[in-house]
Amino acid sequence: MMEDMKRKKMLYVQTSGIDAPERLYAPFILAMTAKAMEMDAAVYFLIRGITVIKKGEAAKIKIGSFPSLKDVMDQAVEAGVELYACAQSCELMNMPKGDLESRVKVAGAATLNDLVVESDGVMYF
Amino acid sequence: MELDLRGLYCPIPVFRAREEISNVGVGEELVIIADDPAAEEDLRRWAKRAGHEVTGSQKEGDELTIRIRRMR
């Protein structure tokens, strides 16, 4: 019973990048929904996923009647969703670390492992 | 004891911290200097999981100084 009452935590791992725009909305939408369901939520960007949080890129993505990805990202941050960026992925994708969205926490392998273990549910995109 | 990890990047700082903490006595501090942007979050989480205590950290520009007390 006590276990059920504990605040739950969701983690969404985004490995897809701006070359696959249809895969980029769901983590933000799910994370915002988790917050609305009284759960904590974080999105961790790594490998190609890092391109999503390169300054200015999310504003260029808009699919059909969906709002721009930037709008969805802003709403998620406002709702309290935490964003993490893999520092080594910036290197991998040849992206200066200064190019990242300012609301992103830069982290590494230990942090991702820890987040996966401490979360109650993890989804990969 | 001081550990200079400048120029070393994820996941090396965590590996080196793990090695070096065994060279300080229980209750003593390991002071780590690092410039990997991932180091602060990673070292904090490693310390917590390894059962050690972060007693302080400060950042000057890109350079992090973090103090970890060996607890076991």
Structural domain tally of chain B: 1
* Number of continuous helical runs of chain A: 5
Which CATH C-level class of chain B is it? Alpha Beta
Q: How do the SSEs of chain B run, as a string of H and E?
A: EHEHEE
Ends apart, CA distance between termini of chain B: 16 Å
The count of DSSP E runs of length 2 or more, i.e. the number of strands of chain A, is 5
Radius of gyration of chain A: 14 Å
Helix content range of chain B: 25-40%
Q: On the 0-100 scale, what is the average pLDDT of chain B?
A: 97
What is the element layout, followed by pairings?
The complex is a heterodimer of chains A (125) and B (72).
Chain A: H1 2-5, E1 9-14, H2 25-36, E2 40-45, H3 69-78, E3 82-86, H4 87-92, E4 104-107, H5 109-118, E5 121-124
Helix pairs in contact in A: 2-3
Chain B: E1 2-4, H1 12-21, E2 29-34, H2 39-50, E3 53-60, E4 63-69
Parallel strand pairs in B: 1-2
Antiparallel strand pairs in B: 2-4, 3-4
Summarize the model shown.
With 125 residues, chain A is an alpha/beta fold.
Task: Describe the fold and architecture.
Chain A is α/β, with parallel strands linked by helices. Chain A has helices spanning 2-5, 25-36, 69-78, 87-92, 109-118, and strands at residues 9-14, 40-45, 82-86, 104-107, 121-124. Chain A has a single domain (2-124), classed as DsrEFH-like (Hypothetical Protein Ychn, Chain: A, 3-Layer(aba) Sandwich). Chain A contains 5 helices and 5 strands; from the N terminus they run αβαβαβαβαβ. In chain A, helix 2 (25-36) packs parallel to helix 3 (69-78). The termini of chain A are far apart. Chain B has one domain (2-69): TusA-like domain (Translation Initiation Factor IF3, 2-Layer Sandwich), CATH 3.30.110. The radius of gyration of chain B is 11 Å and the shape is globular. The model of chain B has no long low-confidence stretch (mean pLDDT 97). The interface between A and B is medium-sized, with 14 and 15 residues.
